[in-house]
Write a structure and sequence with these properties.
Blueprint lengths: L3 H28 L3 H8 L3 H28 L7 H7 L2 H4 L1
């Protein structure tokens, strides 16, 4: 039986995959699958630009941490968190 902490991590990973993606799907349905308008929306004001930069820096830090952990522990499956981070989101990658 997995520990409560592992179950909490799993629940947060699932939430981190589904909840943000719901908003992206809404965006794509309304605006189409063009990435340029989405990037423009991410920088609509200083608050959204700050959030985008915060998530970008967090994603880079997470990537470096994953590489460091893989180098030490040889847990190659952990590398799957990198595409998860950039294709879905930082919350899912974590």
């Amino acid at each position: 039986m997995p520990s409560p902490l592992r179950m909490a991590y799993l629940a947060l990973a699932i939430w981190g995959a589904i909840h943000p993606m719901w908003y992206f799907i809404q965006w794509f349905r309304a605006e189409g699958f063009a990435l340029a308008p989405m990037i423009e929306a991410w920088h609509a004001n200083a608050a959204t630009s700050g959030l985008v930069w915060d998530l970008t820096i967090a994603a880079i830090a997470l990537t470096l941490w994953i590489f460091a952990e893989v180098a030490v522990r040889r847990n190659w499956e952990a590398l799957l968190a990198i595409p998860a981070t950039y294709l879905v989101g930082v919350s899912f990658g974590l």
